[in-house]
Amino acid sequence: MFAPTKEEVRHFFCDTWRKTQTNELLTPLEAIARDWLIQHPEYESDFANPDAHAAEYDVEQGKPNPFLHLSMHLSIAEQISIDQPIGIRDAFIALATKLGSEHEAHHHIMECLGQMLWTSQRNGTPPDAEAYIECVRRC
């Protein structure tokens, strides 16, 4: 299992942004990340900032973490591409159709993913894929 550090994740997104700006060749994963980076222009300054690797993001102070946000987009895109957990692809398609936006569907799924992970950590139990899919279906 791939478990990058916070610094590695931040470097990945900043390097992908730099390569995008200089029209360098991207790996397949970087190309997916680039597509999400482009859909979030509000984070451009974070990805272009060489000090971003050390920045602190505090939701309570209204400062969302762009690296976490983009990482969740990548995770959800991967889940959908391989239909794991089983049913996430169909739930995503239904939600995207209902909302008229794949991007907005991702944002709703993020809430469900975050809720599932929080519950798992709080209870010390494995993530409940069934509850996760059901949450997406209820959106």
Concise structural overview:
With 139 residues, the protein is mainly alpha-helical.
Specify the biggest β-sheet: none
Q: Poorly predicted ranges (pLDDT <50, ≥5 residues)? A: none
Number of helices: 7
Average pLDDT figure: 91
Structural domain count: 2
Query: Could you give the distance between the termini?
Result: 30 Å
The oligomeric state is single chain
User: Nearest-angstrom radius of gyration?
Assistant: 16 Å
Work out the number of β strands: 0
Q: What is the percent of helical residues?
A: 55-70%
Q: What spatial form do the alpha-carbon principal axes imply?
A: globular
- Beta-strand portion reads under 5%
What does this structure look like?
This protein is mainly α and 139 residues long. It has two domains: 1-65, no CATH class; 83-139, no CATH class. It contains seven helices and no strands. It is globular and about 40 Å long.
Helix-strand layout with pairing:
Layout: H1 6-21, H2 28-38, H3 44-48, H4 66-82, H5 88-99, H6 102-123, H7 129-138
Helix pairs in contact: 1-2, 2-4, 4-5, 4-6, 5-6, 5-7, 6-7
Keywords:
7 helices; 2 domains; globular; 139 residues; mainly alpha
